[in-house]
Design a protein that fits this description.
Keywords: Hydrolase, Signal. The chain is of the alpha+beta class. The chain has five domains: about 25-50 and about 85-315, Glycoside hydrolase, family 3, N-terminal domain (TIM Barrel, Alpha-Beta Barrel); about 330-400 and about 535-640, 3-Layer(aba) Sandwich (Rossmann fold), CATH 3.40.50.1700; about 415-520, Trefoil (Trefoil (Acidic Fibroblast Growth Factor, subunit A)), CATH 2.80.10; about 675-790, Immunoglobulins (Immunoglobulin-like); about 800-915, Jelly Rolls. The chain has 17 helices and 47 strands. It is globular, with a radius of gyration of 30 Å.
């Protein structure tokens, strides 16, 4: 029997139509879960979404581990990022061919959330605080994952996480406040390029709410994302997020109601209950039975899913990727690529001439990360690990110490000892046990038993020593130290919040009550700081390798409170530098860090660099390669310079390099070279719809070097607050000594647009602009002025939506209805929103559409929220949460254009809109 859906010569939409006609409703509903049921009568196999591949294939065993995503981005080299995506896609295919059920071809990568706040626990998963650069890198990686065949995907990349997701703290219940300009100018642009260019073919919504509505129910999925996509776009839920709609979010009363809403909003695949799909499918069937969901709603979702499966070649006799085998996994080519990516990601933050190292010096390799490579939650299993110590030992004579304190712990009942077999810890033994104390910062410590070399962990409630280090979804190997009388301390288990107590048998166990905690005296039997200083003093050069632990210092489910390096590691830096001024500080972290010694002569940073980290580090330290990396987010001097973690309004809070007015520790785009560069001859002119700029860059040093030439613009006059600078383009150039290169920018004038809240569209204003070219966002070498003839935004009049205001104070963005729209709710007496330049000519009355659970009052004032003339007052009646009343008020006789403050006289008032045209 001829089945058109299996015929590659039939147009794809027709193939999908044919298969859809053959499926029953029950079979179609079965395709709406992460684990899609097979349809054996049609020869459809099982299909699963969700293989993690953020910087290499994850969770399925040894596979090539590339630098973390934020490290890949610091290369400022999209083609390299694309090649890493290609290699990762190959390894996904290799695992899939070996185990189709274990390695699905819908990959959940890349992460495109702009890195608004470095305290975000998942900072290492993103690319940049700049949305445009994020889009460039995400598109490159997704294009590599997708493969080069024009019609058939290698894998189906999924962008994470839509939308406004930068906090782990209460992530399932917090709502991200997104004013329209922040939404359109900052959050959405990071998602657009990969979707619009067809590089990514799926999207995952985030756990949080946005303006009061769960992201999984966002109308923007259908109104924006799918409008960008050239073909069908698959939308998969995040794990267990559908259940949150009735659970912690309480947005709907029943799961059938919630799931029906999710399907209508655009969710095509429910990631719920792991491989147990029965409950989810049951709720969907109930929704159908109750009329909450129609078959055409199901059809629409299934079509998106099947489109991806068709484009993966599932129903074709052969695909271009059939010959990929497990021989590609960690193959020599991928190892070389991992080394290249790590080498090009290193950022030289400071250098007084100490680097590059010359000759074959004796090097002291010191610090907690000196002989350690770590996996993060979304990395694969390291097939091998080239540490800093290993990489440098291949180049010169080295000595090493971890620079951690060795301690003993004793209580009134005796010393704490570790079972040599890895079993329980006890107090009261005659022998004295010793432990290495690792400080990971933020008050998190890990203890490693010297007798076994294994870390102290908690098995059930019992303390044991059987782990290789902090690990797992629920890290059970870290403790806090709380002071107790007479110089003693109590240990508190971070994961559970319980204290460490001792039973009658002496075994250390967790207890709930702080009063039951055992008091321990900690004595240092060997100072790691002193040992490091002694080794440094006897060496030609000291290399101190410090940083974070990806599973301890913030991660999924856990944000950071501080950017400061762990105190014990910070102390090692100071002591080593005093012992040997020829000290190189090497920082390895997934986010910006701060430290206290500002006299270290050379500082090098990278994200966790994967399996080839040590080789790459040695190549950069010894000058085999110029440090090519440049920062993709601002390094602040302290977390005190940051707004609240939950403040997503980067415009109002002066956040990110776009608006930050302070002097950062290191600016966006920063990174030094081993040579010097000069910039000259900046030329800028308008060429039709393009702004063209050129500049000449010359290597003025004595050795080859790499420069990342960065172009920024600033609009100098505007109706609204504009960024201080915005990245518009860059070019990475490699120059021999004395060589010059002309670098160019061709910027469409349309890219100079911003979101005009008065007309809900992008607009290019008539205004002067300045173009800046240089080495970073603040290291500008040349600038020039140019004029744009655009629009002048006219005064606004008539109907004004409350969410489309210009400025605000003490208000929250909320959902106008459960389905669509944004409104404003007052959070305090005297809260206000401002509408600039409102034309009241001929307006005699106005209508406010508002509601309040307790009732309230709204006043419109001219020019000032406290003392401005009151033009109208609206008594707001008591209403339901999504019930609004149209309240009419007479308007004082004031013609002309004015700035109007809508003042809420009490909290809890929700305003949807004000119409100044009603009854005019």
């Amino acid at each position: 029997m001829h089945e058109p859906f299996r015929d590659p010569s039939v147009p794809l939409p027709d193939r999908i139509d044919d298969l859809m006609r053959r499926l029953s409703l029950d079979e179609k509903v079965g395709l709406l879960h992460q684990y899609q049921a097979p349809v054996e009568r049609l020869g459809l196999g099982a299909f699963r979404t969700g293989t993690e591949a953020l910087h290499g294939l994850a969770w399925l065993g040894p596979a090539t581990v590339f630098p973390q995503a934020v490290g890949l981005a610091t290369t400022w080299e999209p083609d390299l990022v694309r090649r890493v995506g290609e290699a990762t896609g190959d390894e996904v295919l290799a695992f899939h061919h070996k185990d189709p059920a274990g390695a699905g071809r819908n990959v959940w990568a890349p992460v495109v959330n702009p890195l608004r706040d470095p305290r975000w626990g998942r900072n290492e998963e993103g690319y940049s605080e700049d949305p445009w650069l994020t889009g460039v890198m995400a598109t490159a990686y997704a294009r590599g994952l997708r493969g080069s065949a024009p019609e058939t995907f290698k894998t189906a990349p999924t962008l994470k996480h839509f939308l406004a997701y930068n906090n782990e703290t209460d992530r399932c219940t917090t709502s991200s406040n997104l004013p329209p300009r922040v939404l359109r100018e900052y959050e959405l642009p990071a998602f657009r390029p990969a979707i619009e260019q067809g590089a990514a073919v799926a999207v995952m919504p985030s756990y949080n709410l946005v303006n009061g509505r769960p992201a999984h129910l966002s109308p923007l999925i259908g109104q924006v994302l799918r409008d960008w996509a050239p073909d069908d776009l698959l939308v998969v839920s995040d794990a267990y997020a559908p259940g949150n709609l009735t659970g912690p979010q309480g947005y709907h009363d029943t799961l059938p109601e919630a799931y029906a809403h999710a399907v209508k909003a655009g969710i095509d695949s429910f990631t719920q209950d792991d491989d147990r799909s029965e409950a989810t499918l049951g709720h969907l069937h109930t929704a159908l039975d109750l009329g909450l969901l129609a078959e055409e709603d199901v059809d629409r979702a299934v079509r998106h899913t099947l489109s991806i499966r068709f484009r993966l070649g599932e129903f074709d006799r052969a695909t271009p990727y059939e010959d990929i085998t497990d021989s590609v996994v960690n193959c020599p080519e991928h190892q070389a690529l991992a080394r290249e990516a790590a080498r090009r990601s290193f950022v030289l933050l400071r250098n007084d001439g100490l680097l590059p190292l010359a000759g074959a010096p004796k090097v002291a390799v010191l610090g907690q990360l000196g002989d350690l490579l770590m996996e993060d939650w979304y990395s694969g299993t390291l097939p091998y690990a080239v540490t800093a110590r290993t990489g440098l030992a291949e180049r010169c004579e080295t000595v090493f110490c971890e620079a951690v304190d060795r301690v003993t712990l004793t209580s009134d009942a005796g010393a704490v000892t570790a079972d040599p077999a890895g079993g329980p810890l006890r107090v009261g033994a005659f022998e004295v046990g010793s432990f290495d104390l690792l400080d990971w910062g933020g008050g998190a410590y890990a203890l490693r038993a010297v007798a076994t070399g294994r870390f102290v962990s908690v098995d059930g409630v019992t303390l044991v020593n059987d782990q290789p280090g902090p690990n797992g979804w629920e890290v059970r190997q870290t403790f806090r130290m709380e002071e107790r009388p007479r110089g003693t301390l109590a240990l508190r288990h971070i994961s559970t919040g319980c204290y460490v107590g001792a039973g009658e048998d002496g075994v250390l166990r967790l207890v709930d009550d702080a009063d039951q905690a055992v008091w321990l005296a900690m004595d240092v039997v060997r100072s790691g700081t002193e040992q490091a200083a002694r080794l440094a003093a006897a060496a030609d050069v000291a290399v101190v390798v410090v940083g974070d632990h990806p599973l301890v210092n913030g991660r999924e489910t856990e944000d950071r409170m501080t950017l400061a390096l762990a105190p014990a590691q910070d102390a090692v830096i100071r002591a080593v530098r005093k012992a040997n001024p020829r000290t190189v500080l090497v920082i390895t972290s997934g986010y910006p860090l701060t430290w206290t010694d500002d006299e270290v002569p050379a500082v090098l940073w990278s994200a966790h660099g994967g399996q080839e980290y040590g080789h790459a580090l040695a190549e950069v330290l010894f000058g085999d390669a110029d440090p090519e990396g440049r920062l993709t987010q601002t390094w602040y001097r302290s977390e005190q310079e940051l707004p609240d973690l939950l403040d997503y309004d980067i415009i109002a809070s002066d956040a990110t390099y776009l608006y930050f007015r302070g002097v950062p520790l290191h600016p966006f785009g920063h990174g030094l070279s081993y040579t010097t560069f000069e910039y000259a001859d900046l030329r800028v002119h308008l060429d039709g719809d393009l702004v063209r700029a050129e500049a000449t860059v010359t290597n003025t040093g004595m050795r080859p070097g790499v420069e990342v030439v960065q172009f920024y613009t600033h609009q100098q006059r505007s109706r609204v607050k504009q960024p201080l600078r915005r990245l518009r383009g860059f070019e990475k150039v490699r120059l021999a000594p004395g060589e010059s290169r002309t670098v160019a920018l061709a910027l469409p004038v349309s890219e100079l647009a911003f979101w005009d809240v008065t007309r809900s569209r992008f607009v290019v204003e008539s205004a002067p602009h300045r173009i800046m070219v240089g080495r970073s966002a603040t290291d500008v070498r040349l600038s020039a002025r140019f004029e744009i003839a655009g629009e002048t935004i006219p005064p606004q009049s008539g109907l004004l939506r409350a969410a489309d205001h210009d400025e605000y104070d003490a208000v929250t963005f909320v959902d106008e209805t459960k389905v669509d729209g944004d409104a404003i709710r007052s959070d305090a007496e005297g809260a206000w929103i401002l509408f600039r330049q409102v034309d009241l000519t001929g307006s005699a009355q106005c209508v406010a559409t508002a509601g309040s659970a307790e009732g309230g009052m709204i006043t419109i004032r001219r020019g000032d929220p406290l003392y401005g003339q009151a033009l109208a007052t609206f008594p707001v009646p008591r209403t339901g949460r999504y019930t609004y009343q149209d309240i009419t008020a007479s308007l004082a006789a004031v013609d002309g254009v004015h700035d109007l403050y809508v003042v809420f006289e009490n909290d809890g008032v929700t305003l949807a809109r004000i119409d100044f045209g009603a009854g005019a």
